[in-house]
Amino acid sequence: METRAAVLYDMGLPTPYAESKPLKIKQLELDKPKKEEVLIDIKAAGLCHSDLSVINGSRPRPTPMALGHEAAGEVIELGEGVTDFEVGDHVVCTFIPSCGKCLPCKEGRPALCENGAETNEAGEMLAGGKRLHEESSDIHHHLGVSGFADYAVVSTHSIVKVDKSIPFEQIALFGCAVITGVGAIVNTAKVKSGSSVAVVGLGGIGLNAVMGAKIAGAREIIALDINPNKFDTAKSLGATDVYDSSSNEVVDRIKKATNGGLDYVFETAGAISAMEVAFNITKRGGTTTTTGLPHPEHEFSFPQVTLAAEERTMKGSYVGSCVPTRDIPHFVDLFKQGKLPVHELLSDTINLEEINEGFDRLEKGDVTRIIVTMK
Question: Is 90 exceeded by the pLDDT of residue 308?
Answer without folding.
Answer: yes
